Amino acid sequence: MKLLHIDSSALGANSVTRELSAAVAARWQDDLPGLAVEYRDLDADPIPHLTGRSLAKDDPAENDRSERILQQFLQADVIVIGAPMYNFGIPSTLKAWIDRIAVAGKTFRYTAEGPEGLAKGKKAIIVSGRGGLHSGQPSDFQETYLRHVLGFIGVTDVEFVRAEGVSYSPQHRADALAAAHASIPRPQRLAA
């Protein structure tokens, strides 16, 4: 079994999502001996945003990198994504990664009945960090987008670990982190 661990926060050691995504990956490693884990830090090693040149496949080095990113995703059974909320959405570095895994003919296709996700059988655990309170609010473009785009490519087993209101006060941050740590799913849930 393979777990792909993605971080996208620009906050380094001060990041709520980095702390929590590391805790998710560690719990899964502890519970599943032999679990292979690959790590990708989208802040330290950002993926270039798509351009016309990218889509035209004019750059062989970029094409190779995009294919490696896609294959890394396709080979993973579990994807842990540290996704902080930036301006009501996700970091642009995470969007650039999504643009490399949402590939027609590879992770989705269009049929006479509509789109079909081809990356089925995977579990995604999204670690969501938010300065304010946004769950269930019109301001939540982060979780709705991630759930939709993952479902579009066939990843429908999506779970969220949330830390909200972390910018309100040090106590809010501590309480949100404690609650989020307590909600980290264990691998047994994969059998469902």
From TrEMBL:
Every Flavodoxin-like fold domain range: 1-183
Pfam family, one: Flavodoxin_2
PANTHER family: FMN-DEPENDENT NADH-AZOREDUCTASE 1, FMN-DEPENDENT NADH:QUINONE OXIDOREDUCTASE
TM region(s), chain numbering: none
Upper taxonomic lineage: Bacteria, Pseudomonadati, Pseudomonadota, Gammaproteobacteria, Lysobacterales
UniProt protein name: FMN dependent NADH:quinone oxidoreductase
Enzyme class: oxidoreductase
Known partners and oligomeric status: Homodimer.
Stretch forming the signal peptide: none
Organism of this sequence: Lysobacter enzymogenes
Keywords: Flavoprotein, FMN, NAD, Oxidoreductase
E.C. code: 1.6.5.-, 1.7.1.17
Cofactors (names): FMN
Function: Quinone reductase that provides resistance to thiol-specific stress caused by electrophilic quinones. Also exhibits azoreductase activity. Catalyzes the reductive cleavage of the azo bond in aromatic azo compounds to the corresponding amines.
Family matches, as InterPro entries: Flavodoxin_fold, Flavoprotein-like_sf, FMN-dep_NADH:Q_OxRdtase_AzoR1, NADH:quinone_OxRdtase_FMN_depd
GO molecular function, one term: FMN binding
Family, as annotated: Belongs to the azoreductase type 1 family.
UniProt: FMN binding residues: 9, 85-88
Highest taxon, organism lineage: Bacteria
Cofactor-binding details, from the entry: Binds 1 FMN per subunit.
Recorded catalytic activity of this chain's protein: N,N-dimethyl-1,4-phenylenediamine + anthranilate + 2 NAD(+) = 2-(4-dimethylaminophenyl)diazenylbenzoate + 2 NADH + 2 H(+); 2 a quinone + NADH + H(+) = 2 a 1,4-benzosemiquinone + NAD(+)
